[in-house]
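TASK: fixed-backbone design
INPUT:
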């Protein structure tokens, strides 16, 4: 399943943790999923590259993007 389909269906972002994020963090998470889908290559590399680009674009500490939303939710 494509990442955009998960986001569109709210499957991936329908968690308590995601709902508690600031609007900026929600936008950043959405941007990460969009970038992952567009890039080619290894999924881990795509994720890490997306984190770096999005954190720089939104002026967010990249550590925050690795921990939000919590995978436990």
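OUTPUT:
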């Amino acid at each position: 399943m494509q990442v955009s389909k998960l986001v569109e269906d709210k499957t991936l972002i329908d968690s308590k943790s995601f709902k508690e994020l600031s609007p900026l963090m929600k936008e950043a998470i959405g941007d990460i999923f969009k970038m992952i889908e567009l890039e080619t290559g290894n999924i881990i590399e795509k994720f890490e590259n997306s984190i770096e680009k999005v954190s720089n674009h939104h002026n967010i500490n990249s550590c925050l993007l690795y921990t939000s939303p919590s995978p436990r939710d």
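COMMENT: DSSP finds five helices and no strands in the chain.
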